[in-house]
């Protein structure tokens, strides 16, 4: 028969986040021929419904509500519970983002559901759905399955390739009632200049204590701009005051899985490796040939980042210019 699978999508600045499309692809595997329904909070922007249909949504529930324009744990929890009650899906999917990590456990606890978080793959084996997730800072992978009927998972960004479909989803407006909020969002202050979300970036150029100062991030930013990526940092760089903690990657920061990760002046402490070791291609630049980062790097450059990074930037500029 297949399953009815409900995907709570996310948007930022009026654009759907890529993890929404990845979640739809995961949902299609979970549905096994059943219906895939997407939920849009806030005002539906032009083209969003078509995008969701393109990546597998058969139906789109549009929930327009002023309290949902900015993320609020109380508001989102109330809205999600009401949507789940009305749709009564067999499976629920969210992105393993700041929002998903915050609200999914609240929903699971309220509904008494099992929850498998941070999934990097969905597989079928012997009639069972198997959910793959990294453990021990990415050194091993765990395969889990549900014993109850209703499934609830979060999907790690940049791990499941979105698959396109020819869909023309039905749009169903839904009204929700939000009340007794304990807090409201008055203003969102953007603390980093880049418009690219760190957790979804295809290219990340990170700096550690080796950048020596906030000024040391300038050549890293130039390289990231040329490659169409964004910058990140180790906790050491953040603790030293070289950059904002919003850029921190690692066990106590953000987990990223870009196609290309360039580590500049980062020694490679286990806490940092926990946040980036699953990157598709890792390039390390460090003056110390014994730095642990070289053990996980696909390519290593032993040298001064202030000499190497500008040369890389110029080389990439030249290559990209020739391609045009």
Automatic annotation (TrEMBL):
Family under the similarity heading: Belongs to the ETF alpha-subunit/FixB family.
PROSITE patterns: ETF_ALPHA (PS00696)
Keyword field contains ATP-binding: no
Keywords assigned by UniProt, alphabetized: Electron transport, FAD, Flavoprotein, Transport
Matching InterPro entries: DHS-like_NAD/FAD-binding_dom, ETF_a/b_N, ETF_a/FixB, ETF_alpha_N, ETF_asu_C, ETF_asu_C_CS, Rossmann-like_a/b/a_fold
Signal sequence, start to end: none
Residues that coordinate or bind FAD: 209, 234-235, 248-252, 265-272, 286
Organism annotation: Sporolactobacillus putidus
The protein, known as: Electron transfer flavoprotein subunit alpha
Record-annotated Electron transfer flavoprotein alpha/beta-subunit N-terminal domain positions: 5-185
GO biological process, alphabetically ordered: fatty acid beta-oxidation using acyl-CoA dehydrogenase
Cofactor(s) required for function per UniProt: FAD
UniProt cofactor note: Binds 1 FAD per dimer.
GO molecular function: electron transfer activity; flavin adenine dinucleotide binding
